[in-house]
What does this fold into?
Amino acid sequence: MSDNQDLRALVRTIPDFPKPGIQFRDITTLLLDPWGLAQTVERLTALAPEGIDLVAGIEARGFIFGAAVAARLGVGLVLIRKDGKLPGATVAVDYALEYGSDRIAMHEDAVIPGQRVLLVDDLLATGGTALAAARLIRLAGGEVAAAAFVIDLPDLGGGEALAADGVPARSLMAFDGD
It folds into this structure.
């Protein structure tokens, strides 16, 4: 990960959101800046390993970056969504949250066995959603070649969790703390 201080300066920090003690990293200011948005897409695309067949964008902000990266790479986009949001036949997995669980899904025919997939999302925290997305891709017979994030919160261990699962995680910038 390079320092990407120019992009980092476009990310707004909102203290005590959504609850006291959390430093929320708000990318809406990055998205509003035309140069910043274009550079973010360009730099995320550069994180992709060779031979990617598909990009998988994780709901919801991963759709923004995933679609743009897929277009730059000339590959298709897989939508990883909350369960019940996709029409047609889907495959879904549950994953743990801090309090409870959630479920994500993708179309069962979205990934052809053997395809190499790049996961894309805006933020890596604990890695729970990205790990669940990797499980979905593997259930379909795909290979998760790497995961690319705009922001990593390394203190929360998501990068380590993905690495332990065999998924190289790359990000453009990191912020310490929550």
